[in-house]
Amino acid sequence: MPEDITYNQSIIKYSDGHYIEQTDDIATEFPLTLYVNQQEFATIVCSPTNLHELVLGFLASEGVIFRRADIKDIHIDDSKGFCHIILNREIEQHYGQYTKRMISSCCGKSRQFYFVNDAATSKVSLTDKTVTAAEIFKMMNALQTESTDFKQTGGLHNAAISDGKDFYIHRSDIGRHNALDKLFGYCIEQRIPIRDKVLIFSGRISSEILIKASKIGVGIILSKSAPTDLAIKLASDLNITAVGFIRNESFNIYSHAERIK
């Protein structure tokens, strides 16, 4: 397995009419194939860090597990890029549904899901968590400070989960979903309650990211970038507060503003 989230590559840089030999930090890309109960389940292309957390978060977000105790054994062979998971039960035989596209409504609202498993595992937030403007800026500044690998490579996504005060955990990955799954896996492994936490994200809030947030179980998602229209609709229906364009002491609230005090 690659030893780090980045590696050093010799390059030739063109600048101001000159070619210069130098080195550049490049994001490492690592394929990890998951076998669940001896059946091939999925291959995740990821950054080779916090793989145990990534596997836990991915399986939980896909509805394969609901708690750490659902896993009898987990073994990661990082030299070959394999992860073998044995559950304490049989897995439901619906592999084909994970990528089957669909559009459905729920509770008579405008919620739209494009995959069967998203509709099955997304959750309406029931949190009464609130945050202040000062806490929002504090959490986003912390994410920006921690994003050293992105500053080196320009090829990583950064995410963090926090309570706005004492608790804060940061993860990076080449994949947007992977960064969130690592945070989810950390909370599962450490048995940390998620309902009262806030998700902080470096990129655009797409419908996929919003759905991932709902699977994790947070009620507030913060981003320095913009949301999409479908993400806003989903946030409204799933009772999630979406805040974007957090920069220069300003931000936009797109849904459920009652949680921002």
Automatic annotation (TrEMBL):
Its main location: cytoplasm. GO terms for molecular function: sulfur carrier activity; sulfurtransferase activity. Belongs to the FdhD family. The keyword DNA repair does not apply. The keyword rRNA-binding does not apply. Gene3D superfamilies: 3.10.20.10, Cytidine Deaminase, domain 2. This is Sulfur carrier protein FdhD. The lineage of its organism: Bacteria, Bacillati, Bacillota, Bacilli, Bacillales.
